Inverse folding.
């Protein structure tokens, strides 16, 4: 674990795996809930947790060295089930990358339990991990100018669902009608960091 | 007339509703947003008697014009510009009474980029996640204003500040941005780190609320490959593949995969928001506090 100073009042705490990042994020949340840490934003990401708006960054760097971070709670978080139709335009391309028949893509994807590693790109866009490393995928060489809301997509080690229509370079494998983001709802984001996710094929698929 | 609202008669190039933004949601991918020049927004609010978190209008280069449906007190600050009420010149940087039915015009900026227009009661559009700010990156908050937009106002506050005007910093002719190194300075060559703080940059015309883009020497990476996405702070100096540093402003993405070579002191960002395209920029290294 390494704490990199970011400006005057933030620290980027770097670890060596997404598992460790999840564990660290859970520990940071626990310490904040206990009043041990005053911080404006806690932003988990692939290998880091950003602590922005810290009360005393220099002191926190010293403290972090003595933190003992337990493994991430695996079953503690809620499970969100997202209905999905595996009808994306990139199914064939994904199948080719994975060296499997096209219908196997849906079976592999729906058979995986994902975790929201972090959010970014757009409000409510979660980067979901869970697929084995052999299924890592490149982004499309040419991004699409418009990906529809609800598109279920893959890139690198991640699965994501576009909360609203936007440009995007991920490979599209399906569609969900779930509303990923609704700022009038509490909570606004269906997929927050740490939440577990399963994709459930719609009837008849 | 008791209809507490204003009607946008001339929206200008880009006029948005702004307040203190919506911090605390970065982990969901929600930018903080809010006024790019917070001291200017706070000042015009104070001049009309509003609390600091009241929503104001933020213009871009060419001002805007609004018609008051009831008598209101208005103050225009930030980028200096001509102000007129009912076609007659009025004070900039001071409270001005706009009678019901009259037009308030904030003209093109004489210097700087963003003028702020506060109306007594504040712009009272429906808040999203606790803020009325327009976030141009993710589309939260009200859309940028268009001609004919009707904006509701909040209840009239107490009497406006009893001041004729207040000192405001001049928009910068030369932009000096103090930076602390890191967190990813080690992704760049020693020369790139030196170049950032010794060479001359200029504000690029493609700057916006997301970032202040610069033109100048490209900064060379020492490490190739992709940085896994990581959290981004306000003022981060991110270096995309073309090597030209971008300073993240209020609507910046909450995570990103390009390395951050340095971070600009928050106190210097209001000046960055007022630097017109072509303004010379110097990044000056300072010690971390």
């Amino acid at each position: 674990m390494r704490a990199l100073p970011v400006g005057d009042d933030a620290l980027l705490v770097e670890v060596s795996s997404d598992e460790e990042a999840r564990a660290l994020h859970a520990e940071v949340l626990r310490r904040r809930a206990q009043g041990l840490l005053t911080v404006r934003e806690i932003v988990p990401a692939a290998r880091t947790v950003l602590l922005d708006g810290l009360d005393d960054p220099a002191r926190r760097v010293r403290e972090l060295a003595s933190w003992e971070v337990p493994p991430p709670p695996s079953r503690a978080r809620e499970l969100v089930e997202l209905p999905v139709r595996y009808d994306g335009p990139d199914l064939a391309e994904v199948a080719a990358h994975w060296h499997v028949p096209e219908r196997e893509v849906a079976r592999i994807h729906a058979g995986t339990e994902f975790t929201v590693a972090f959010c970014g790109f757009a409000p409510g866009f979660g980067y979901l991990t869970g697929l084995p490393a052999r299924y890592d995928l490149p982004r499309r060489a040419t991004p699409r100018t418009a990906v529809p809301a609800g598109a279920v997509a893959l890139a690198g080690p991640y699965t994501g669902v576009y909360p609203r229509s936007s440009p995007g370079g991920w490979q599209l494998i399906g569609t969900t009608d779930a509303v990923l983001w609704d700022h009038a709802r509490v909570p606004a984001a269906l997929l927050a960091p740490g939440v577990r996710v399963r994709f459930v094929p719609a009837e008849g698929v | 007339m008791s209809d507490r609202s204003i009607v946008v008669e001339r929206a200008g190039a880009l006029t948005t509703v702004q307040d203190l933004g919506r911090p605390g949601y970065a982990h969901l991918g929600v930018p903080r947003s809010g006024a790019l020049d917070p001291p200017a927004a706070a000042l015009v609010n104070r001049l009309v008697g509003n609390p600091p978190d009241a929503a104001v209008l933020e213009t871009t280069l060419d001002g805007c014009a609004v018609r008051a449906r009831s008598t209101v007190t208005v103050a225009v600050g930030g980028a200096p510009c001509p102000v007129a009420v009912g076609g007659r010149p009025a004070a900039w940087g001071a409270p001005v009474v706009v009678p019901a039915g009259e037009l308030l015009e904030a003209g093109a900026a004489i210097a700087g980029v963003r003028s702020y227009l506060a109306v007594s009661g504040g712009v009272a559009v429906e808040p999203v996640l606790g803020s009325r700010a327009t976030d141009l990156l993710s589309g939260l908050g009200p859309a940028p204003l268009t001609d004919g937009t009707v904006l509701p106002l909040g209840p009239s506050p107490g009497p406006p500040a009893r001041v004729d005007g207040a000192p405001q910093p001049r928009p910068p002719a030369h932009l000096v941005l103090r930076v602390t190194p890191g967190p990813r300075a080690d992704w760049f060559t020693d020369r790139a780190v030196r170049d950032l703080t010794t060479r001359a940059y200029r504000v690029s015309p493609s700057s916006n609320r997301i970032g202040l883009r610069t033109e100048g020497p490209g900064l060379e990476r020492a490490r190739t490959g992709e940085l896994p996405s990581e959290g981004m702070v306000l003022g981060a100096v991110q270096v995309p593949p073309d090597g030209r540093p971008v300073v993240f402003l209020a609507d910046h993405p909450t995570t990103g995969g390009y390395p951050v070579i340095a971070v600009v002191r928050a106190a210097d960002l209001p000046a960055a928001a007022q630097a017109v395209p072509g303004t010379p920029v110097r990044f000056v290294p300072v010690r971390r506090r």
Summary: The CA atoms of residues 29 and 42 of chain A lie 8 Å apart.
